[in-house]
Design brief:
Strand order of the largest sheet: 3-2-1-4-5-6-7-10
Strand content: 5-15%
Bound molecules: adenosine-2'-monophosphate
Largest sheet: 8 strands, mixed
CATH topology of the largest domain: N-(1-d-carboxylethyl)-l-norvaline Dehydrogenase, domain 2
Structural class: alpha/beta
Shape: globular
């Protein structure tokens, strides 16, 4: 391994798939990168297999890694999120000098990133929480990168980060979204939106197959067609690809041989937990997360199937196929607008709560390429924020409002048809309920408030006067008193 000193622009430790691909991407873009892994075999393998792709400097120890990087140093940590990240950071800190930068490019919880940022600041070091989306392929060929950290760190990192990110219309899909935990926060919400988007696509597939009787390959054709319009997105494209795939062993549609129990490893759950803390109704993301948990509750599912068995034939509804396909498309689009509006609301609420100045239009810009939710749709979101930076909700901007108005009858028809057929569409249904809830003149929350005052003296506000009030429900004439 090399003993050259301090000539690398950047260093990276943790050479499992994501780290290795990110390192290759950095090297391929002309930056000298020092690479290290706890188990040296991975470092050796990277140098042997891909050493000719750029200027890679191998390091056997963290000391060697640090010594190979030009100051102020940038060390990217790409190890398993959680304890391993803390262990590596603890090892790194004594080896670094003031103004050096530690970058966690893993999928950390933003609260851990905030904690690590504070801890490293105490040592005169800069910590960056860098959200990287795009999976293995993105890491190698151009991901979407959400950087959270100081201006000093961004200045130093920017040339490398912008050169390795995906590019859409000449703009790199990378941005300094805010300080400390901001990068991992927006990456978390990105993944939450991804959950909602996938669930909506899955519900569309289920409806087209179960209600309208399309075969998986025919649903693939429908998705391919949709991908040529305003639903154009990576996820629709992949869905079409997967539905067209036949299992080599059985000759059956691939989707039929995959066990129907989905995982929800972390980020979706974190998004919902954080949304609850912030009080943001991200119903689409929450339903998508719960739909995954429901799918994994195999014992309850088996018990319910025994008692409430469904006859698939009964779920077939007499619909005009072409009309129904069009209605599902409209329902998918409208629900997607809701899911994204909710996700962007959560980013705004998180930014508010943590004092981060996050530019939502810029976020839409860097999600247009490289990441899993990349879609034409994000151009529209970017335009919406360009037109009106302080936007209250994406739902009401002219473009999306027109689309929702045009599709709302179809959306209702799809949700009603699904309910009648007994096909679960939690994301479609809850998005419609959210839409109807927002636009309602009066919500039954008034009764909820009255009930709370009745049994718990929780007080209420009135529509016609300022202040808080309580009604003495136990007294015969129920007098109202000011509660302040
Ligand atoms: P390894 O190859 O030595 O196992 C994904 O697991 C990556 O994180 C791997 O590169 C792995 O290194 C690294 N990793 C996991 N736990 C670690 C730890 N406690 N210290 C250093 N690297 C670790």
């Amino acid at each position: 391994m090399s003993t050259e000193h301090a000539r690398a622009t950047i260093g990276l430790t943790g050479l499992a798939t994501m780290g290795r691909n990110l390192a290759r991407n950095i090297a391929r873009n002309g930056h000298t990168i020092a690479v290290h892994n706890r188990t040296t075999a991975r470092t050796t393998a990277l140098l042997e297999e891909h050493g000719d792709e750029g200027d890679l400097v191998g390091a056997e120890t963290l000391e060697e890694l640090v010594a190979a990087i030009a100051r102020p140093r940038v060390v990217v940590v790409m190890v398993k999120a959680g304890e391993a990240t803390d262990a590596v950071i603890d090892e790194l800190v004594p080896l670094l000098d003031e103004d050096d930068i530690v970058v966690d490019a893993g999928n950390a919880h933003f609260a851990d990133t905030v904690r690590r940022d504070e801890a490293l600041a105490g040592h005169g070091l800069h910590f960056v929480g860098m959200g990287v989306s795009g999976g293995e392929d993105g890491a190698l060929n151009g991901p979407s990168i959400m950087v959270g950290g100081s201006d000093h760190a961004w200045e130093r990192l920017r040339p490398v980060v912008e050169s390795i990110a995906a590019v859409v219309e000449g703009t790199p899909c990378a941005a300094h979204v805010g300080p400390g935990g901001a990068g991992h926060f927006v990456k978390m919400v990105h993944n939450g939106i991804e959950y909602a988007d996938m669930q909506l696509i899955a519900e569309s597939y289920d409806l087209l197959r179960t209600v309208a009787g399309l075969e998986p390959a025919q649903v693939a054709d429908v998705f391919e067609d949709w991908n040529g319009g305003d639903l154009e997105s990576f996820l629709i494209e992949v869905a079409s690809d997967v539905l067209r795939h036949t299992d080599a062993e059985t000759g059956r549609p691939f989707v039929d041989v995959v066990r129907d129990a989905a995982e929800q490893k972390g980020t979706g759950r974190w998004t919902v937990q954080t949304a609850l803390d912030l009080g943001v109704p991200v119903t689409g993301i929450a339903e998508a997360t719960f739909a995954r948990s429901l799918s994994g509750h195999t014992e309850q599912r088996a018990a319910a199937r025994e008692v409430f068995a469904t006859d698939p034939e009964e779920q077939r509804v007499e619909v005009d196929r072409d009309t129904f396909v069009d209605q599902v498309r409209a329902a998918l689009y409208a629900s997607k607008v809701v899911a994204y509006a909710q996700g962007f609301d959560q980013v705004a609420a998180g930014a508010d709560a943590h004092g981060w100045d996050i530019d939502l239009g810029e976020l839409a810009t860097i999600w247009r390429g490289g990441c899993i939710i990349r879609a034409q749709f994000l151009d529209r979101i970017k335009e919406a924020y360009d037109d009106e930076p302080g936007l209250t909700t994406l739902l009401t901007t002219a473009y999306f409002a027109d689309a929702v108005k045009a599709g709302v009858d179809a959306w209702r028809e799809v949700v009603a048809t699904a309910a009648r057929a007994g096909v679960p569409t939690p994301a479609f249904s809850s998005s419609l309920a959210y839409f109807d809830g927002l636009r309602r003149e009066r919500l039954p929350a008034a009764l909820v408030q009255a009930l709370r005052d009745n049994f718990g003296a929780h007080t209420y506000e009135r529509v016609d006067r300022e202040g808080s009030f309580h009604t003495r429900w136990a007294e015969p004439d129920r007098p109202e008193v000011a509660a302040d």
